[in-house]
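Appendix C: a fully annotated inverse folding record. The material below is reproduced so that readers can follow the format used throughout the book. The structure is listed first as tokens, followed by the designed sequence.
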């Protein structure tokens, strides 16, 4: 099993969560703040079986769009998603 940590733009999060939930993936949404822009973003925790990883990445790709932001000093490219994929050693529901 993998633990996916996906940092996405706030505006893309509702549709992404809806699409993941529709495919029966479970998500936890955390409110987060980017260290560079110091503005809000969304971090999702998603527990995924190994053989479902490609589908999850495809859903994230489909729902999360890249954008440019002018922070007053420069134009900054913000990715659709920054995704960390970790091996989950164990997972239990109690
Ligand atoms: P922020 O840290 O607010 O970064 C927003 C965007 O600013 C970044 O987009 C990148 O294009 C730019 N940026 C970030 N740090 C920079 C720097 N030191 N110098 C110049 N430009 C810089 P993304 O790379 O798509 O990142 C979007 C958000 O994802 C980040 O928001 C941060 O919250 C998270 N993130 C990205 N990479 C990460 C990493 N390696 N570890 C933890 N969080 C990460």
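Designed amino acids, in order:
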């Amino acid at each position: 099993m993998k633990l996916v940590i996906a940092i996405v733009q706030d505006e893309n999060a509702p549709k992404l969560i809806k699409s993941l939930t529709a495919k029966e993936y479970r998500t936890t949404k955390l409110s987060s703040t980017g260290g560079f822009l110091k503005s809000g973003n969304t971090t999702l925790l998603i527990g995924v079986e190994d053989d479902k990883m490609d589908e999850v990445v495809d859903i994230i790709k489909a729902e999360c769009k890249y954008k440019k932001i002018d922070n007053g000093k420069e134009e900054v490219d913000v990715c659709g998603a920054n995704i960390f994929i970790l091996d989950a050693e164990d997972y239990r529901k109690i």
